[in-house]
Amino acid sequence: MDRVPALEEPLKKLLGGPTAKVMAEHLDLHTVGDLLHHYPRRYEERGQLTKLAELPLDEDVTVVAQVADARVHTFNGGRGQRLEITITDGSGRLQLVFFGRGIHKPHKELLPGSRAMFAGKVSMFNRRMQLAHPTYAKLGADAAEGEDTADIDSWAGALIPIYPACKGLESWKIAKAVDAVLPSAQEAVDPLPESLREGRGFVPLPEALLKVHRPHTKADIEDARQRLKWDEAFVLQVALARRRHADGQLPAVARRPAPGGLLDAFDAKLPFTLTEGQEKVSAEIFGDLATEHPMHRLLQGEVGSGKTMVALRAMLAVVDSGGQAAMLAPTEVLAQQHHRSITEMMGELAEGGLLGGSEQGTKVVLLTGSMGMPARRQALLDLVTGEAGLVIGTHALIEDKVQFHDLGLVVVDEQHRFGVEQRDALRGKGKQPPHLLVMTATPIPRTVAMTVFGDLETSVLDQLPAGRSPIASHVVPAQDKPHFLARAWERVREEVDKGHQAYVVCPRIGDDEEEAKTAKGTKKAEDAETADKRPPLAVIETAGQLAKGPLQGLRVEILHGRMQPDDKDAVMRRFGAGEVDVLVATTVIEVGVNVPNATAMVIMDADRFGVSQLHQLRGRVGRGSAPGLCLLVTDMPEASPARARLNAVAGTLDGFELSRIDLEQRREGDVLGQAQSGVRSSLRMLTVIDDEEVIAAAREEAVTVVAADPELEHLPGLRTALDALLDKDREQYLDKG
């Protein structure tokens, strides 16, 4: 039988069952390799050796001294025990204290006359300096003065690794477990090609692992970190480069628009000219569509930069060439909105085959889960016969019953709302792999795009169409300055008086079903910091209070996700037609809702929303010629992090800048987890936002390596590292992308 490679050895063989069980359950560590890649979070310095006579208060110190005496005191009527030990080094005396069960070991080991090193934080109690629960290491009792100085100095100067720990497994226990597996680091297979490693001056992997866990100097830590960051960036970029390479080998039907066809007819009808950005991005997309390999492109753009127009022109180009195009939207409200705006933009071109329709036209169908049976049956028929060139739908498009005549392009709107499986299921409906265009309105910093969507080519729209108005944003501190909130409602009235409309956004719906859920959740969260916070404001109550109070006499309606689809659609139609003055809604309006006459938005409990979400919501106003206004209402105090976040949103309209701030606050684990459909982030050392240069350089190297050796036949170490990164879940994730 083959010997299990050292790094794949299960931890329970080396550490024993109980420890291995806690590591597996709480830290997701199963093998020796997993534990070696569980890096210290930071390092404590024990502090240089200090004389007892010169101890600084509130600092970490290390002292060498002799135990003068030790006494156990009882308190609380004999229920509590305290061990007090006095130590001396000839220059002064110091008290050590241990409490509770922590007294037994030191009471047995630190006998009067014994010498030891002690490390801890100096505190003051009853006007006397002390160390509470110090760590200590005994020194040879009969060692002569000079003999253990080297030992003393190395112990005092050591950098103590502090590991991410969990209940039942403190950092020092993890350190002890790491000691047990550290010899296996010598057998770690190096994923970096030798030429790359030497060219960039990196230490070998076994040395990096040794230095990150047991550094002698800060330079050791720096060496190890540089090397281990590179490994993470490079292995991930190789996985993505191999994906891109494999996709480039797949066959697809080239889709070129026919001269004088549907696209030309549509362009001729447009009442405005495309922005330079739209022209440039369209050219990139048309270039991809004309090749015989599937396009994989990420189209990201600022809120309101006209992504839908770019996507629609790509869809029309595909219909021109005899294929069909499908747009996948995350919610019914958004699918209906897209369907409505696309049919309006296309006019008679959206009525192909119908009386009065254009002969170059095609049929545009909507497919959602809540459609009635007859309409649904007709839509399915139009798709399978090819009568409908364009379909806009929710995940209802993915169901087995849905079949296409010839699916040529899939457009996924709001990428982060869809699991990879959903994208994949829709792509599987083409006779050959269809082209894929992924759109997101949440701008993503370049590093994240390279790390998360590294398999997609990226196009960015950062120019707003002409006629778009600036949006003024302000924070309204309702708790500190109630008159600011009163003024906010006056501003809404002023906008309505000018003939405009407004949104009021609340975090919660406020119906019975939700109340029951919240009540259940609050019991669990009693001890959490939110326990003393009032529940978030709800649409239903807020709408009622506004209609009776500050917005009395205005036409106020509500919109939320639990309404019947027809009711939602009816409200959106009335709002779009100007028959509603103020729409009180949840975040269902966050994406894609386009009512140019809406100029003001008041976001209640704005601190309960993420930065990107606030930016998205704000993008719903200022879509016409009148300037937009967004008011962020919060009860949070001025110095709080939540207020800092809101000030950042109010301070800039640059979505890329905001997404950076968002990421710095949330850490990228969330971002990667979210985009990788719940897969735990593989990044332990690399921070996506700070290590831009490392990621960019790793990507270049990865492309070169994969171009020369796509199967990595000559790089067994890299293959092994890839297999470790791409366990079953991840392999599928990347394969499906």
Description:
The chain is an alpha/beta fold and 737 residues long. Helices cover 41% and strands 18% of the residues. The chain is built from 27 helices and 21 strands. A seven-stranded parallel β-sheet has the order 11-12-10-13-14-9-15, sandwiched between helices. A six-stranded parallel β-sheet has the order 16-21-20-17-19-18, sandwiched between helices. β2 and β3 form a beta hairpin. α10 packs antiparallel against α12. The radius of gyration is 32 Å and the shape is globular. Mean pLDDT is 82; it is low at 142-148, 521-532, 668-680 and 728-737.
Low-confidence stretches: 142-148, 521-532, 668-680, 728-737
Strand order of the largest sheet: 11-12-10-13-14-9-15
Distinct helical segment count = 27
| Number of beta strands | 21
Distance between the termini: 37 Å
Biggest β-sheet: count, sense, barrel? Answer: 7 strands, parallel
Helix content: 40-55%
Beta-strand content estimate: 15-25%
| SS-based class | alpha/beta
Tell me the overall shape: globular
Overall mean confidence score, pLDDT: 82
User: How much is the radius of gyration in Å?
Assistant: 32 Å
Q: What features would you highlight for this structure?
A:
single chain, about 725 residues, alpha/beta, 7-stranded parallel sheet, 6-stranded parallel sheet, 27 helices, 21 strands, disordered C terminus
